[in-house]
Amino acid sequence: MTPCHFRHRQRHEAAHRADAAGLRSWVAGARYHVVQVIAAHTVGRGYRLDRDGDVSAR
Amino acid sequence: MDDDSPVRELTLDECWDFLATQELGRLAFRLTDDVHLVPVNYAVDGRTLLFRTAPGTKLVGVELGGSVAFEVDEVDGETARSVVIRGRARRLEEPDEYRADNIALHVWVDTPKYFVVELAPDEITGREFSLHRPWRRIRPAD
Q: Please, are residues B105 and B20 in contact by the beta-carbon 8 Å criterion?
């Protein structure tokens, strides 16, 4: 397999993974590349909002 | 960029108008070798953004580096907008920090936040996207 074929196959497999994950483009146009983010550290927080009297609160 | 493009660059004034309509953004800053990204509620003051914070990573990041990025976005029906700021952040001292008292900068989470941080942009870019999401209109057959 040539390097060109290898890259082509990698891209093809990435596109399939993205499709299978339900990843769809929101803006019309060609997007040929798939980027994977590998989490090294993940944190999450829940906030109880206190916006009483805040006229901007919606 | 042609008129048919689903992506349109916002003008500088449009970027500021958009920032003024929003209250929640995401602050990205570097701390040692890591990039941190946190949500903060903010308000526009002149051509700067202000937010309140407590001692923690945000404040350390601001004090140590000061070079930050800030992003605000909105998805509204079939249109989305995003504004990205690259600039410098600094903690305001008295009497500058009183600027926060004269604008609509409210604390959303009821914890003490005694420090006011100013974000001064070096660069602002914004984009408006016409969304193409036909699958959202597809309803499952009964």
A: no
| Higher pLDDT among residues B25 and A54, named by residue | B25
* ipTM value for the complex: 0.73
Q: Is residue B141 part of a domain?
A: no
CATH number at residue B17: 2.30.110.10
Q: How many domains does chain B have?
A: 1
Q: Which amino acid is at A45?
A: R
Compute the count of residue pairs across chains A and B with CB atoms less than 8 Å apart. Answer: 39
| Element spanning A12, H or E | helix A3-20
- Looking at chain B, list the stretches that DSSP marks H as alpha helix, in order from N- to C-terminal side: 12-21, 57-64
CB A49 within 8 A of CB B109: yes
How far is the alpha carbon of B118 from chain A, nearest alpha carbon, in Å?
Answer: 21
Note whether residue B36 is domain-resident: yes
Binary contact (A24, B135; C-beta < 8 A): yes
Q: What is the pLDDT of residues B50-103, one digit of tens each?
A: 999 989 888 888 888 779 999 999 999 999 999 999 999 999 999 988 898 888
